């Protein structure tokens, strides 16, 4: 039920009920739609009349005027009218019926591979042909292969008042023509009942047309607009719908946030907690940066409330996110609550266990370790200690949240190095560690920051803190881009670094379809390096090694027993070996910008000047050039993220593959980015004053998936 924004003399109509109606009227209520067709429509996620009305064309065709043959361009879809000059069957590689027509400006050939004798007779010289299809190259003239066509005795006259022809997303067993008829029937019967959910004032202030007008226009644009214009998505009717769709997604996240805030979380407050966190930072062995302090206190304020925190900490590689997580765990421990620290890989989890133990055990905080690869006995022991409350901070991989793992008083969950962080993952995490109606606070850490407007719109269900400063004394990594052919120089460079007592990573990222082949490549490189560097130790870690083997190799690298570590991308996230000051990355032209930046962040952690060598196979494509140049020019993670956004669009950054964003019908995040700030503001107003419309909008565009109601 809509609240507000209704003039007092209008009786408050049950507006959302009307929406419910269209969403509840099944497609089978449309004439000619039976069970079989309904099943096909279902594949397009069309179940209700509302779904039909919001099933918008992918593109349009202009069949209102004939294009002169002389002006046709390749790949263009065009309507052509011409006189038949010649029809004959040819027997080339494939038998075909060729019909050449001319309209006085040029000649065009129609090629049919499947044809009947009747068709052949019909396409007689001297008659007129009207056809619509895609323009292709041909041996003699431009061609159309199996166009839609009609043969007449007089030249046909297209109807300019007919408007553009919509082309819809379809599915097997459903033709364009059939879907058009169904949608037209739905428009004729139901367009009048489509409810405007954007408040009038807001519509007016944005200068957007009404919803019914927009829908009718997009299903049947007049011929005054061109298909090319519509393809830009910039027409006001399109922007209006894109806006509404983006707004609906944004609102769904705000609803999630609101529902979460109705849950309770343990209060991790008190002087003791603050003091413990302060003590910890004072004794950690270095001076925390101002940014680290700020973020720790932002988190502290959340933890003091009985509302579950969901906070994303974004900070460049090496910005010191681990310290922030540890300070929060100290705070939890001081109020007798447990913390779970989850890392994405065994390697990283193990490293965290080491770091947390080193920092926290002196403060009488017990740190435990749980991994899928622990022997069953140790695993059981760790689980028992955890359930008995003897462990304060439990570090591990996903194994932390598997069945059988019980916390006695979980207060905080830390999830480290989350790259992709789609809505689905957020929802899944939320279920973890729930105790009755109490949920733990959650801290998520990522080295892939996303720009502010995107975060405000699509992370609307969480709070964001940024560690926007690196610890002092870090020198930017000198990045060089080197073609494959200069490999011997690179090997010499590694030898020189090792002779200086420094260590190097040689990264062989997984790029082939087959992991086995990649591992073979990494092994070959390790062998070649061993030969080239007889006085130094070369080690190898890859994804197929057993956890303990990997661990041993990493351990030896950390202890300086290995000088060069050849690795597949298992070292991508978080690994910290300050004495490693040289990194070689193979096949760098094949990796994404953020990924390269993350890898490079493994060096430059100590006091010495570090170098990152990006090996590539020429020639470099334009995108690869842009990426490698960006890496050479900047080491600022936020700037890298901005450029990555430019390259790949926001979908990749937000992890939309795992979310509903990918299924957006009208909006395109990359194209419609300029709408985001407005969506923010309108979203806020609607949450306050238009609650009925909020849920109706989410139902209309995002769907009332149980995920959203379960939180
Ligand atoms: P990331 O943000 O990539 O997770 P880490 O937490 O692994 O970064 O920190 C990188 C390195 O910097 C670690 O060796 C850590 O001990 C060190 N470090 C963290 N904060 C500071 C600081 N304020 N001053 C000096 N060194 C720091
Ligand atoms: Mg880290």
Report on this model:
By secondary structure, the chain is of the alpha/beta class. It has 4 domains: 16-60 and 167-231, no CATH class; 65-158, Nucleic acid-binding proteins (OB fold (Dihydrolipoamide Acetyltransferase, E2P)), CATH 2.40.50.140; 271-467, Rossmann fold; 478-634, Rossmann fold, CATH 3.40.50. It has 26 helices and 21 strands. The strands form 4 sheets. Strands 11-12-10-13-14-9-15 form a 7-stranded parallel β-sheet, with helices on both faces. A 6-stranded mixed β-sheet has the order 6-4-3-2-5-7, with no helix packed on it. It has a 6-stranded parallel β-sheet with strand order 16-21-20-17-19-18, sandwiched between helices. Helix 9 (236-261) crosses helix 24 (676-689). The radius of gyration is 31 Å and the shape is globular. The two termini are 22 Å apart. Bound molecules: adenosine-5'-diphosphate (ADP) and magnesium ion. Magnesium ion binds at residues 321-322, 416-417, 574.
């Amino acid at each position: 039920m809509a609240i507000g924004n209704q003039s007092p003399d209008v009786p408050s109509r049950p507006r959302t009920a009307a929406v419910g109606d269209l969403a509840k009227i099944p497609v089978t209520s449309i004439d000619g739609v039976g069970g079989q067709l309904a099943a096909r429509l279902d594949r397009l996620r069309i179940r209700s009349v509302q779904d039909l009305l919001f099933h918008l064309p992918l593109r349009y065709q202009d069949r209102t005027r004939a294009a002169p043959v002389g002006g046709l361009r390749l790949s263009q879809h065009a309507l052509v009218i011409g006189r038949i000059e010649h029809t004959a069957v040819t027997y080339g590689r494939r038998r075909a019926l060729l019909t050449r027509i001319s309209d006085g400006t040029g000649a065009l050939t129609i090629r049919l591979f499947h044809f009947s004798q009747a068709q052949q007779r019909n396409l007689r010289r001297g008659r007129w042909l009207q056809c619509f299809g895609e323009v292709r190259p041909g041996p003699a003239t431009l061609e159309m292969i199996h166009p839609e066509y009609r043969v007449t005795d007089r030249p046909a006259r297209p109807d300019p008042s007919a408007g553009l022809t919509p082309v819809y997303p379809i599915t097997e067993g459903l033709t364009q023509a059939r879907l058009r008829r169904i949608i037209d029937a739905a428009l004729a019967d139901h367009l009048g009942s489509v409810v405007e959910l954007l408040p009038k004032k807001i519509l007016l202030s944005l200068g957007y047309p009404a919803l019914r007008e927009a829908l009718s226009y997009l299903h049947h644009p007049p011929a005054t607009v061109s298909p090319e214009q519509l393809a830009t998505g910039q027409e006001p009717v399109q922007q209006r719908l894109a806006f509404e769709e983006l707004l609906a997604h944004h609102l769904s996240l705000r609803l999630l946030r609101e529902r979460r805030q109705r849950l309770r979380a343990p209060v991790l407050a008190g002087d003791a907690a603050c003091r413990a966190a302060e003590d910890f930072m004072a004794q950690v062995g270095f001076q925390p940066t101002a940014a680290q302090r700020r973020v720790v206190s932002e988190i502290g304020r959340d933890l003091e409330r009985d509302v579950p925190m969901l906070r994303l900490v974004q900070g460049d590689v090496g910005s010191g996110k681990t310290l922030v997580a540890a300070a929060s765990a100290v705070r939890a421990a001081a109020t007798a609550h447990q913390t779970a620290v989850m890392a994405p890989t065994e390697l990283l989890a193990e490293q965290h266990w080491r770091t947390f133990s080193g920092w926290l055990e002196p403060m009488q905080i017990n740190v435990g370790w749980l991994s899928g690869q622990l022997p069953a006995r140790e695993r059981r022991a760790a689980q028992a200690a955890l359930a008995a409350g003897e462990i304060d901070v439990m570090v591990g991989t996903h194994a932390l949240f598997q069945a059988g793992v019980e916390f006695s008083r979980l207060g905080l969950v830390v999830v480290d190095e989350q790259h992709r962080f789609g809505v689905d993952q957020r929802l899944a995490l939320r279920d973890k560690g729930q105790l009755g109606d109490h949920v733990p606070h959650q801290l998520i850490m990522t080295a892939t920051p996303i720009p502010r407007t995107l975060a405000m719109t699509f992370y609307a269900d969480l709070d964001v803190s940024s560690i926007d400063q690196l610890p002092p004394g870090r020198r930017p990594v000198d990045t060089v881009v080197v073609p494959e052919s200069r490999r011997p120089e690179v090997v010499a460079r590694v030898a020189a670094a090792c002779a200086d007592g420094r260590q190097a990573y040689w990264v062989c990222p997984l790029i082939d379809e087959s992991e086995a082949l990649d591992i073979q490549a990494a092994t070959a490189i390790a062998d070649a390096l061993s030969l080239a560097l007889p006085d130094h130790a070369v080690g190898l870690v890859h994804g197929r090694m057993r956890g303990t083997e990997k661990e041993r190799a990493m351990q030896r690298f950390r202890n300086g027993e290995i000088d060069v570590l050849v690795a597949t991308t298992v070292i991508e996230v978080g690994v910290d070996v300050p004495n490693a000051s040289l990194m070689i990355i193979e096949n760098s032209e094949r990796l994404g910008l953020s990924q390269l930046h993350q890898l490079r962040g493994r060096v430059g952690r100590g006091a010495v000047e570090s170098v990152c060598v990006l090996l590539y196979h020429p020639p470099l494509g334009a995108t690869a050039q842009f990426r490698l140049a960006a890496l050479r020019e900047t080491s600022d993670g936020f700037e890298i993220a901005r450029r990555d956004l430019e390259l790949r669009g926001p979908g990749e950054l937000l992890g939309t593959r795992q979310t509903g964003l990918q299924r957006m019908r009208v909006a395109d995040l990359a194209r419609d980015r300029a709408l985001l700030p407005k969506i923010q503001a309108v979203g806020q107003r609607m949450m306050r004053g238009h609650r009925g419309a909020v849920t109706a909008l989410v139902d209309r565009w995002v769907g009332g998936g149980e995920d959203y109601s379960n939180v």
